[in-house]
Amino acid sequence: MYLTRSLRFCTALSLLAASVSQAMAAPLPVDDFSKIPAIQSVTMSADGKQLVAIISAPGSNNGDTALANWDMDKLDAGPVAITPSGDRMKFVAASALKAGKNLVLSRQELTAQLSGCGEGNSIGSTKTFLTKAYLTDSSQVKFDEAFADNTRKLGISEQTQRCLEIAGSASLVHALPLDPDKVVISQVNQTTLSANYYLFNLRTGQTELLFRGGARSSPGLFNPRNGELLTRVQIEPAGANEYEQQILIKNPASGQFEKHDPLTTKLTDRYTMDIVGIDEASKKLYILTDRFSPQVQARMYDPTTRAFDPEPLAAHPTYPIGGLVLGTRPSNFNQVLGFHVDGPTRETIYVDPQMKALQDGLKQAYPGLDVTITGYNDDLSRVLFTTDSAQSPVSYYVLRDRKNVTTLGSERPWIDGKQIGEQRWVTYTARDGRKIPAIVDLPVGWKEGSTALPTLVHPHGGPWARDYTGWDRSGWVPYFTSRGYAVIRPQYRGSTGFGREHWIAGDREWGQKMQDDNDDAAAWMVQQGIAAKDRIAIFGYSYGGFAAAAATVRSPSPYQCAIAGAPVTDLARLGVSWSENRLQRILQGQTVKGMDPMQNAAKATIPVLLYVGDRDVRTPSFHARSFYNAVQGKVPAKFELIPDMPHSMPWYPSHYQKTLPLMSDFLAKECGPGGL
Fold it and tell me: Which of 295, 291, 292 is nearest to 321 (CA)?
């Protein structure tokens, strides 16, 4: 689950702030972030012949999306087809497949009775979104619902049918890059509500059953050549309120799936044990695991001897291995080309000489930017790659014939990176000695020794998540740094990606030690001379919104005010509605304990702004509204319900136009850190 004092300053301080503001760049306008990206979700087919993307619909003034398709042989001529979104259903993502097909994700507003239907489970009508996937070809004339089994089953109510439509009843699982026509898909069985897995022929629509899922059984690794299921995962009871995750591997001699004890873990231990590939020569499996080290490593496991190799295949002393890069083209198929290191940013380390030379050349051509190869054809005559940085939104390019680069465009070409300041990866020490990684973003022109800044402590959502350096897709960080704020994003205990121990240290510490980490980030910023002690606020969204609500009722507080976007505020109520899946409640729900803001609302000491979308079914509006009702009268408080806003991106332009000024105005008028 992803939950992503009204003070007046003396004249002297106001004059000092005014003198600082003169040296800073002009604030980036709200429109820079509210506009639909000019281009996004760009992918290229494996053969390098077709490219698809979501673009800003022509004539919409970046107010709506469209699906665009390019013929790679005529790339410079522009898209061969552009299909604007409809009045209701909006294109939000696209992917180039094969057999001339593209997969397109679309979304539209829906208000319906969803009682018993996952997120949004409530009595009466719920405002949410309906998401559907479609298959189309390069002409983009016909759109067929992707992979779905729309056959009405006897005994299935209309409400259940609608629930499945909203939740999404089918999805792409594996692209099977060498097969010209087939992919692996999943379909939700409308009778059992479990997922079944099929080979799906993109040309004919025919399916072939690969695996029939159950309540505690799911597929693991599919053979990337033909889709054969090689491993599966079984969840079995292992004592009172405990389960174990068993990995079963298919014995090629008997055809039976056999449990492997070295791969079996207890759910509550939360070890990583992910099978991500197979070495076709030795038949050993590639596994990501932290059973042998504090950080996830890539290891090889021999199913015959039932033993791991003594040394890791890929490891890093400080950061986890986030995945392996396996070849997907005929010339390098299933070979280990490199691996991902989840450091400050996700960095790809290529060990294949050809891919390493390609990446090194691109990095040299785009200094100061993070370069990521996202697609290529077999002879590398066509390579799709992206660049970005803290100052530069994601841009898309195609390298042709290893020498000519075609710029497809930037997501936000109107952003002036010179108005966005420096970004730093830092580590500070929490009050109990724990080392906390963090990202610090500074306004243009600020240097050590400059006047201390108004500062936002900005914890991420999740909490089982993390932040990366580079461009902030939410837009929140550059929006505020361009207005003279420093922003620190603490990777508090409970964050993932910094080792299992750091992750588990957040268990049952909501509003307690997790919150200490945020407060200690504020103290560190003051110690470094970056933050003005009496000009600090906390802003978070989803779980970060919980942290902002918790800060409202904790004393003593380092903050002058709090902004809680889409917050959870009532842990008691969250505990009973965490998930309908008992295993999920055991795995994560039991960790959600600590200081409950709703139970401590009488202790509120600082002003708080709460906002949430009226189509948010992940952190429904009752959390923000109830907390607002409980603290108003005790502290200055404001509540805003944002029309038609869901929990997660993408958001409409109107959502940014409402929320960004809402936050900056609150800081300027209702809170100590007033705008510069």
Answer: 295
